[in-house]
Amino acid sequence: MEVNFNKIDDLNATLIVKMVKEDYAPSVEKELKKHQKQAVLKGFRPGTAPMSMIKNLYGKSILADEINRLASKGLYDYLQDNKIDIIAQPLPSERETSDIDIENGENFTFAFDLGLAPQFDFNISAKDKMDKYIITVDDSEVDKEIESLAKRYGNLDSVDKAEEKDIIYAQVSELNANGEVLEGGVANKDISLTAELIQDDSTKKALVGCAKDAKLTLDINKVFNDNKAMVASTLGISQEAAADLNPNFSVIITDIKRQMPAAVDQTLFDKVMGEGAVADLDAFKQKIKENLETYYQSESDQQVEHMITHLLADKHNVPLPDAFLKRWLMNNKEEHYNAENIDDRYINESKVLKDILIREKAAAQFNISIEKQDIEDASMGYTLSLFRNYGLQNPDFEFVKKFSDDSLKKRDYVEQMNDIAIRRKVYNQVKTIVTFNEKQVSIDEFYKMIEEHNHQHQH
Predict the structure, then answer these.
(1) Are 260 and 155 in contact (CB under 8 A)?
(2) What is the pLDDT of residues 95-138, one digit of tens each?
(3) Which residue has the higher pLDDT, 408 or 45?
(4) DSSP class of residue 148?
(5) Using CA atoms, how far apart are residues 298 and 291, in angstroms rounded to an integer?
(6) Over the Cα atoms of the chain, what is R_g?
(7) Is 80 helix (H, G, I), strand (E, B) or coil?
(8) CATH T-level topology, domain 155-260
């Protein structure tokens, strides 16, 4: 078998695999004999069918499989032996012609186009400077957090008159033109609503200040801001039926609930921190402050990593075989890419690929490797962040670990955690190289800075 490598430029190449009958005949013969032993054909005992019949039935498909297997092996053996790094899988060549005439030929030629991995140096040093924000948590922030926790752990209590944020429970019925309950219409349907969300001022004013057992006539469409889907869902009818409703409804207020904050006492301390974790208000405030400082330190660390992402992209010019990669995406992900959208969608694909290549370059330069424990640690951190996003600030460790371990049984998830683990180690390495300028900022100043940064990158 003959393999020829033709480098077009630094990012593109063509590789040609040529084979003659002597290259594939032994393996084809071996496969034919295997089929002969296993074949069950009418009129013959298992394994006794004539080889001529086996060749007639299976010869062409076996030949096709074998020459494709050998061509692939020749391709990848050459790449490995010659230490040629490629991006994505090879594609049938558009530059050279393949000759794979199974019906008539004995000699075959496979031509592949290759995208070559770009060569570049990792270019981060102590000359690169970054801001690192130390976020100050003052007493007012602690008080605001305690107020928020008191509301979160409070109770819904019935009140006499409705305010904007109260939950109003009502029984509604559709009315006819005479202001009477419409026969066959929506009747005695229990709903709940909040005046704060109503956009129509007159409807909102009618509800704010109303008392239990009050009877109102309201436009049901204005109650739900002319959202027919919401009207249909709330009343339990189809959207078609909602479109045909008479708008005027009688509304009888059945109850009014208000979120009442919990008392800031030992009961709240135990609910938030765990039973017996803190014994008085001062200790509770100190723990809240520590939690906030930890949270905002995490926010600051995330901002540093975000800026490292920009730094790595800005400091490295990573050229790609763009035309090859666009063709590869359209060939291998037809459901997402086509000639009409490839140019726009490739912008993000190329950015992600460049980020990966830069991290791989750093990992190679600093001998970074990923062990099983790194992936498990990444999964635990990822799982904890998920739970915290759902409001579970102090989830049980064993529960988190079981959730994480179950997730790690999925191959795609493991690959995702491997990427996170590599990024974490690379970024930690970068943090030891660059020069940080620490800045004390308030919480408001920190988020204002992030907002301004995000605004700049959107334009």
Answers:
(1) yes
(2) 999 999 888 888 999 999 999 999 999 999 999 999 999 999 99
(3) 408
(4) H
(5) 11
(6) 34
(7) helix
(8) Chitinase A; domain 3 (3.10.50)
